[in-house]
Amino acid sequence: MHFFKYLWRFTNGTMSTEEKSLNFIEQIIEEDLKNGLSSDKLRFRFPPEPNGYLHIGHASSIALNFGLGLDYNAPVNLRFDDTNPAKEEQEFVDAIKRDVQWLGYQWAEERYASDYFQQLYNWTIEFIKKGKAYVDSQSSEEMAAQKGTPSTPGTDSPYRNRSVEENLDLFERMKNGEFEEGTHILRAKIDMKSTNMLMRDPIIYRILKRHHHRTGNDWCIYPMYDWAHGESDYIEQISHSFCTLEFLPHRELYDWFLDQIYDENKVRPKQREFARRNLSHTVVSKRKLAQLVSENHVNGWDDPRMSTISGLRRRGYTAAALRNFANGIGIAKRDNLIDVSLLEFYIREDLNKTAPRVMAVLDPVKLVITNYPQEKEEWLDAENNPEDESAGFRKVPFSREIYIEREDFMEDAPSKFFRLSLGKEVRLKNAYIIKGENVIKDADGNITEIHATYDTQSLSGSGTEASQRKVSGTLHWVSIAHAISAEVRLYDRLFTDEAPDSHKEKDFLEFVNPDSLKVVTGFVEPSLKEAKNEDKFQFQRLGYFTVDKDSTSEKLVFNKTVGLKDDWAEQGNSDKKALEKIEREIGSFFKFDEEKRNVSTANFKTALSGINNYSLLKNEFTKVSKNDKNALLYKNFILSFSKVKASDFDKETLQKLYTMSLKSESPFVRSEAIQNLKSDPENLKEFQTQLSDLKNYEKDEKVLKLLSEL
């Protein structure tokens, strides 16, 4: 088998050829071609269910299937698996088509599972006639009970041996709408003792008296996904049906259904699975995304905080960045969590090349250049993009009064403050060198105005000796007389935890970031007056921003796409360092006198309560326990002062910590463990005997006092 191949690849809007190593999906295709499959029989599909908007996980699947189509010059169908009218809408169909095309792909044919409802029904009639399907009239509870468990076989339905005639009659009446939902279902007759639960007489049809977005009210019964999906692949002569890893147990059923209808003169679809790529600090479950929308945690499916393709697009992500991300993470056989920082890297990389540089001030303070003439204004040259020579220059207005960022000035600055302060010089981007002179404050002591002077010979690019003078920093600014007011939406990650839906004991909504959106009024340079929806810019020194669809000719609205650097990575490193520092300093705690211990405890409490990374805290708590006082006190402090609680951990982990802590040689460890047990009534009951025994030999007064309070 060849593990390298020259492939056509679609990158940044152009076709290129490259030699690349093959992933396991491509190796499967190459092996099939080697074993006789004709290359003109290759056909792929992207099969979304139209029950929500596509998310970043779908972007990877789109890139895989359409990328294979480009690599092998094979057609790719866009097929909507629209078998559940209770959850599907035309809005979702339209959004999916829009997203696929925006990503830069075009399908060969637009198909729908509903196109095949009659054929699926006809095949089902043949199943019944051959004794391979029957109508079951049990309740859902009865069916669940007789289906067994993974370790115990199921039992046959009392309706499993209905006659062919009775099954045909009931199924026809189901189709005609004579029965209410839930009264009957049609099941395949396979094997109730199968080790694969999905093979235990799976449901083929259920009654749903719902309006379908394409077939209207023509049908009262709808095929189940497992029945419709493989057969739709077969009808369309899809050669390879790629799906995510959770469908691996479904492969046996996929093949069983095909066995019943397969004609050797046709291509038989092959299902193979690849790993889902989860993205940190978000969710990629349609159900959970729908919950975020329905419960108003976000403002719709295209909210820029959402992991939907529409949301990412609105936030300012480019199709090229999403394609590059999908191709960059590749295809794997195991599920894993991709750090969202990698996605942010790809958008920074793309926008750095293409986004014009402009100046905007988001937290303005007025600066008056006192020696600049009051009526004077200049239009200065500013480079549009140093990464793109063809981008040219634009003119920006300069005047006596400008806005700068409030954080760019400090009245009494430390030596390492490289921005403006009194008596210190900085350069204004594209303009002059200024020096802080004095400030004006309001009655509360807040700075309302900064006064500075400028060096008249220091204009950027003028070539004068003064213009080449080195100063400590460069500030962006906007001329007040020419500034345009704009609403700026500062988006942050929607969840504070890297894997918000991975904690069984927690509702993922507990991790919604309360600071995921901050709206400010800023000021932008006048060149942005005609900016249109989805236009992208780098606000110098601030990040990349995109014009939102809410913008009007009277009011500009910008979304922050991404910062110039990864603030979350910095915070994550800061959290890790804080925990490492606590772990290092725990040893000294035992040597301190009472006053210093109290101070140290207060510092530990402040540090631990300030860490929002739930997963990091949980990992620290659950890592292998050492039976020494330092490690035990460290874990007890995490339980006492951080955001994790006893209810977040399994009983065995907690009981191991409590047992070792109560036996510790250190009274500080024992007392901290007792404090934690007081807040954990479930485990407190389990330790009554050990606590009673402790009272008999405990000598430390503080520990005795705590024991008496129990």
| Mean pLDDT metric | 91
According to DSSP, the number of beta strands is 29
* Percent in helix: 25-40%
Helix count, DSSP H or I runs of 4 or more residues: 21
**Oligomeric organization of the protein chains:** single chain
Q: Give the low-pLDDT segments.
A: 6-13
Rg computed from alpha carbons, rounded to a whole number of angstroms:
33 Å
Task: Outline the biggest β-sheet.
Answer: 7 strands, mixed
Shape: flat
The spatial strand order of the largest sheet comes to 14-27-28-29-25-26-15
Verbal overview:
The chain is α/β, with parallel strands linked by helices. 35% of the residues lie in helices and 20% in strands. It is built from 21 helices and 29 strands. Strand 27 and strand 28 (543-547) form a beta hairpin. The longest helix is centred in the C-terminal third of the chain and has 23 residues, at 567-589. The radius of gyration is 33 Å and the shape is flat. The termini are far apart. The relative contact order is 0.07. The model is unreliable at 6-13 (pLDDT under 50). Its EC number is 6.1.1.18. L-glutamine binds at residues 81, 225. Belongs to the class-I aminoacyl-tRNA synthetase family.
Characteristics of this structure?
seven-stranded mixed beta sheet, 710 residues, alpha/beta, 21 helices, Ribosomal Protein L25, Chain P, flat, single chain
